[in-house]
Design brief:
Layout: H1 4-14, H2 29-35, E1 38-43, E2 47-50, E3 53-62, E4 65-76, E5 79-86, H3 88-94, H4 99-108, E6 113-121, H5 127-132, H6 136-144, E7 151-155, E8 160-161, E9 165-169, E10 177-184, E11 192-199, E12 205-210
Helix pairs in contact: 3-4
Length: 220
């Protein structure tokens, strides 16, 4: 497995490639080409695993292969928090990695768990303007780096695993949500039992996102 620095560089570069990103706001030629291969996007029934906490799966067929995005959503006050566990191959495809580079790229992040963590206003308002406009520069700086210390997950061995990489995908007030890209080391997706986030940026405190194993679907 490649070292931590190289993994961080790879993921950082991939987030800026002109590819088929998740929910990109201005689709380019590569993204439109990628979307031609999307045959179906569907979701499993939502399962309430706790009060104000819902788990569901999104099934995405891309280039005749089915991928599963496991996700858990928790509602707290006026904000919806969602953890999305992204299959490594799907992440690379939608960031523009072509088939000739895919095997090498997959080997480099073989034991990483890649996640998107999203904050969304239930009322569809701009979260940054609504909550953080008074100290915008400090808030953006925290979302870009300091927030890495607010996440961790628990695996089947009851080990605590913290992210080795975080990237804030700023949308510049175009959409009513904010997204953090996370990478957790030495962990396969099907080894995760629970995800935790301590919300210091919006002040909603520690919250858990349990992954119910009878709904959790592995891509391995």
């Amino acid at each position: 497995m490649m070292n931590v620095i190289n993994i961080m560089i790879l993921l950082f570069v991939l987030t800026f490639l002109n590819g088929c990103g998740f929910d990109n706001l201005s689709p380019n030629k590569s993204e439109l080409e990628c979307k031609k291969h999307v045959m179906a996007i569907e979701s499993s029934p939502q399962i309430a695993v706790e009060d104000n906490c819902i788990q569901t799966n999104t099934f995405k067929i891309l280039k005749e292969k089915k991928y599963v995005i496991n996700q858990v959503k928790r509602l707290k006050k006026d904000i919806s928090y969602t953890i999305k566990i992204i299959p490594n191959e799907l992440f690379l495809i939608e960031k523009g990695v072509n088939s000739s580079e895919m095997e090498k790229a997959l080997q480099e992040i073989n034991k990483e768990t890649i996640c998107y963590f999203e904050f969304e206003s239930i009322s569809k308002r701009d979260l940054i303007k609504q909550h953080l406009s008074g100290n915008l520069d400090e808030a953006i700086s925290y979302l870009s780096s300091g927030i890495i210390n607010d996440f961790y997950m628990i695996n089947m061995n009851n080990d605590t695993v913290r992210p080795l990489f975080v990237h804030f995908e700023r949308n510049f007030h175009v959409a009513p949500f904010e997204r953090i890209l996370l990478s957790f080391p030495d962990s396969h997706q099907n080894e995760i039992t629970e995800f935790f986030y301590d919300d210091k940026i919006f002040g909603n405190g520690l919250m858990n996102f349990p992954l119910t194993q009878d709904l959790f679907t592995s891509n391995y």
